[in-house]
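Submission checklist for the structure archive. All mandatory fields must be present; incomplete records are returned to the submitter.

[x] Identifier: Holliday junction branch migration complex subunit RuvA
[x] Organism: Arsenicicoccus bolidensis
[x] Residue count: 200
[x] Sequence attached
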Amino acid sequence: MIASVSGTVLTAQLDHVVVEVGGVGMLVHSTPATAAGLRVGQQARLSTTLVVREDSLTLYGFGDDDERALFEQVQTVSGVGPRLALAMLSVHAPDVTRAAIGSGDIATLTKVPGIGKKGAERIVLELRDKVGVLPGATPGAGAAPAAGGTQPQVVEALVGLGWSVKQAEDAVGRVASAGDAASMASTSAMLRAALRELGR
């Protein structure tokens, strides 16, 4: 089990980063918010979990231990794998997800691409008594200024989360045309705004 990685950020994309650890570049899959908070050349430490499959070893990274704990916990539910768990953290902060599970808020859970009504009900049924909102829990990475090419990156992330290219482009277009400064402040902010559009 690789519990964390620390080193220089070599690459920071929308859904992954590469961190140099002891001369080795480790590709770490992450949420857009976590990746957006990192910059090439800076030192970074990510809480991680290694997912072992018959044909692959995949490393997932998080801004803090709370995100990692929830990522691992939701995968105890039948039908929830790493990709869906990461999508949950991309759409909602850990405390929001826990509150939705604890209160049986199916509508909030189904805003995550890949989670339908039955899947949300199963998550609530299996985890309701196991999760709790941690006092003072906050998302691990803050918003960072968006660079050029934000819209294509957000479209790519939405497609990766399960929407079609047309749905993704339409949602990003609506967010951009709305001209909401807060939504345009960073890549992760634009992604969250687009996810809200798609959830309507």
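[x] Structure attached
Curator remark: The radius of gyration is 16 Å. The first strand starts at residue 4 and ends at 12.
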